[in-house]
Amino acid sequence: MGVRTSAGGTSWSAAPPQGCLLSCPCGPRTVRSAAGDQGGHAVMRQRFEPREEHDDEQQWQGQMIYEALLFPRVHEERERYEEQAARGESVGELQGTRLREILDHAMRAVPAYRGVVPDVTGPAPDPWALLAKFPSVTKSGLARGLVDHCDDDIDPARCRVLETSGTSGIPLRVIRDDNAFVHEWATALVRNGRHGPAYNRKVLMPCLARLNHWFEYLSPGTGFTRVAQFGCDGSSVERRALYAERAEAFAPDVLSGSPRNLIDFMALLRENGRRLPTVRRIVTCGELLMPAVRNSLADFFGAAVLDMYAMKEVGTIAVQCEEGAYHIDSERLWVEIVDDSGTPLPEGRTGEIVVSDLTNRAMPLIRYRTGDFGSLATAACPCGLPHKAMDLVEGRNPGEIRRPDGSALPVLWAARAARRYPVRRYQIVQETDFSVSVLVAPAPSFGPADGAALTQAVEDLLGTGVDCRVRIVGDDGFHRGGRRKDVDFVSFLPQVSAAAPMAAGNQTPSN
Hints:
Strand content: 25-35%
Strand order of the largest sheet: 9-10-8-11-12-13-14-15-19-18-17-16
Number of strands: 25
Radius of gyration: 24 Å
Shape: globular
Structural class: alpha+beta
Oligomer: single chain
């Protein structure tokens, strides 16, 4: 439960749902017995029905209780991870042990993986060689076979159901168990401890579109973090000034949110003459962090800006260090980069990011194709962390720019060109005549020379036969429906893989 204070006094309120227990009263989630395998044994199947609306306060109470009950285990695992690091124990050895355990469990207890790998006899095989025998699974495949990807003996009392944002076009409901959350929160505490206190931090998440008030709550699982959230869309000048004042009084250690929300918050503080000198770290997530936005945030708040790559299916995947590399949460995940056929690629080659969760036994995700693109670093990061690093995180592949002669160019190439210039946001649009418009919301330092250079750069990529122009627009001048985690592309040509554009207007950032 959280406390919301207003001019009328103090009232109890609730945070937006962050997922719920399988056994909570959000809606009927019954466990039924059915003949599932060919041997006729009864297997436990989970049926998930749409949620029923109920008192948000009750749901948030359940979330806090859930986190508090797990916290002793979280603290214990955090200490174990730090002791292992102090002894210089190999992260790779821990990964190998956990990978073998989760693969054994999947082959034994999860219908989707039962029988997909020939019986293993003799000495235990190399876990990575065994992993290579497993097929990859896509979002659509997981959505169709949700029940078959669950442990036969799933315990509803020890799990939560989470819903993905659906920005890939495939909304998904996934199940994660206590163990998965314990290890995710424990590794987060270790990571937080490198930059300051691991416990009792204050985190501000500003300018959320889903809220129209100020809300504070405590998150026991993440180290008894005191979190404040607010939204101010459509608020009066007086109310915006009040939010700026409350943010300053809250004195957060960390700012967290999408780049767009944080830029909006920076504007809110500026218009009200407020500063936040207590901020030590800024953590961005959910959408592309443009270099100009990173620099603006760092300059205004005087704090380092670190980007996070995460998804609800497996939690945090990688977080940037001060050197800019995305370090994988290796204690609990194994990450591969694969080509279109699913074949693993060597370090340094860009392909689709495939993740195996080493800690979630309720719904093991093995070789899960994220739809995002990146590459593994070819050398150790200068920061000294033992975790494998990703040199880049591309967004979900939105498609190709097509030429009149039938050839095509990956839009990621044009996106990389746009990122080299001081823009807050961009969108690449292919018109019905094959011409390409690059819509740009400029940063303050963007000038005519930048527009001309960007036009020339994209023209050089596209070659002859495709006209290119750069257009300066406001935040309401972008086409809706093209937003991705990393690139923004819509096409008006028929039969393309990009998102179908909608009427121009503000877009909702990815979560």
